[in-house]
Structure formats: C-alpha cells, structure tokens
Design brief:
Length: 111
Amino acid sequence: MLGVGRAQLLQRIDSLGSLKKAAESMNMSYRAAWGRIKRTEAALGVPMVEALGTRRGGYSLTAEGKKIVEAFLQWHERVQSFAVGEAQILGLLDIYKAPAKTPPRDESITR
C-alpha cells in the first residue's frame, strides 16, 4: 500500500504543509489523495500524517511516516538500480531500441 506515487504525495504534504496543495500539485483531487493516505495508514497500521494545530493549520508527516517514506524510497532506489544492472547483464536493454525518427518529408520535392 505504499508506492512511489504515494511516497511523493506524502513528501509533498510534508514540504507544502497542505494536503490540498500536495494533491493539486499531482493533479489529484483532495478526496482521492485523502483516500490513498487512509488506505496506506490502514494497511501499515500507523498514522502517516498529522494535523498541524487547528483544522485549517495544514498537515505534516508523523515521525513514523517520515521514517517509512524515507526507508521506502531508499529501498525503491536499490531495487531499481539492481533491476537496471540485471537488465544490462541479460542484454534486455539492447533488445528494444526505439525506432529511428524518420526525417520530415520535404514537400518541395516533386515526384
């Protein structure tokens, strides 16, 4: 229940101090962002965000939330590095080459 997108959302909540601003910055509705956070908290069994003072005071990550996001992003970076290394060893990166772009057709040339 925690992926790169949710980790980015949580980081933005912490840096912007606002769930609304974090959601908007990711082209997501407030409701969708809140639902994702609540599902993550339920799955992990820990609160990830906390209100800052009053209801309009904004949000920040809890201490546990910060640790979880940081650990997840470190793990994700290691997995991604390992996967790219394995793909290179297996030659997977050479299997698919993007097709060469066709130069634009010169309309001034007559047939």
